[in-house]
Amino acid sequence: MAAPSTRRSVVVGEALVDVVHRAGSGPAAEHPGGSPLNVAYGLGRLGHDVALLTRLGDDARGRLLREHLDAGGVRLPPGAVDGDPTSVARAEIDAEGKASYEFDLVWRLPDVELPEDVALVHTGSIGAAVDPGARAALELLRSVRGRATTSYDPNVRPAFFASPAAALARVEEFVAASDVVKASDEDLAWLLPGQDVDAVARRWQALGPALVVVTRGGEGAVAVSGAGTLQVPAPRVDVVDTVGAGDAFMSGLLHALAEHDLLGGAALPRLRHLGLRTLEAVVGTAIRSASITCSRAGANPPTRAELDG
Question: In the structure, what pLDDT confidence band is assigned to residue 298 with cuts at 50, 70 and 90?
Fold first, then answer.
């Protein structure tokens, strides 16, 4: 197995600052956020050579994000910092714990040519929903497919779509351009209310991905590949919170595929013929990554030593 650090990965999508105000708790707290940022940070902590293709401002919040990414070993490409403000997600948490969100978002891709030896290109969430960046991300996936593994997590934010039908049309464009797709049962419940999770996963896998995984919270995950459908349970965990758990699952899943030499264009035939035993090991690693994150506060994915321990 090749060491993860020898495999170049590129994550495409938003980097933003979460500004969280809880009723009765005083001033708002600010934290690095954005699903793609979290996935890149998770891969970096697991020892991968990873770059985040994003944009952020030359301001205090942009510096907060750069310091966070530096601490996780994540590189930013040239042109990532520009003159517009860093994107912000403002969350108001009421006395009952319910959150309402407002976004102040600027999303476009810097003009960067990917290296020839890139093994993985991942995108998702707002970065795959809001134009012009989303359209550029889709074209990027299509352009590298075959020489790199492409992966996608819709991580749907309903506020950015006119309707579930409009969202589904966009989501399935990305599904068809991806080799690996991860979604949550909550995503599917909003996009396709009342439809069976396993059936949706099988339909999406038929659109072109080699692997589709749907997370089901404490029930684990269902995975669909050419070898069939597999249910993988989750261990019992004392949950502190679930912030960043889905992103930790995604980074753990991609890490596990790298560990089994299943990333990169040359590995695609092996990925398409993935056996159920290997599939169970790969998804089990992703579940373990999410479980560790749930056991502590915030979007705090595991290190390689913690995941292997």
Answer: confident
pLDDT tens profile 72-123 = 999 999 999 999 999 998 877 766 656 677 889 999 998 888 988 999 999 9
Domains in the chain and their CATH numbers?
A: 4-304 (3.40.1190.20)
Separation between Cα atoms, residue 252 and residue 302, nearest integer Å: 9
How open is the CA angle 134-135-138, to the nearest 5 degrees? Answer: 85
Please answer whether residues 118 and 148 qualify as being in contact, where contact means their C-beta atoms are separated by less than 8 angstroms.
yes
Q: Determine the Cα–Cα distance for residues 8 and 5; give it in Å rounded to an integer.
A: 7
Across 117-128, b (16+ Cβ under 10 Å) vs e yields: ebbbbbbbbbbb
Q: Is the pLDDT of residue 6 over 80?
A: no
Banded pLDDT at 67 (limits 50, 70, 90) = very high
Structure tokens at 287: 């579940």
Percentage of the chain beyond pLDDT 90 is 78
**Which is it for strands 211-215 and 221-225: parallel, antiparallel or unpaired?**
antiparallel
The model's pTM: 0.94
Q: Is 57 helix (H, G, I), strand (E, B) or coil?
A: strand
Side-chain half-sphere CA neighbours of 214 within 13 A: 22
For residue 73, the 8-state DSSP code is T
Contact residues for 63 (Cβ-Cβ < 8 A; gap 6+): none
Please say whether the beta carbons of 51 and 73 come within 8 A.
Answer: no
Would you tell me how many other CB atoms lie within 10 Å of the CB of residue 287? 22
Q: What's the chain's average pLDDT? A: 92
Q: What is the DSSP letter of 126?
A: G
The answer for residues whose C-beta is within 8 angstroms of residue 210's C-beta and 6 or more apart is 179, 180, 225, 226, 268, 271, 272, 274
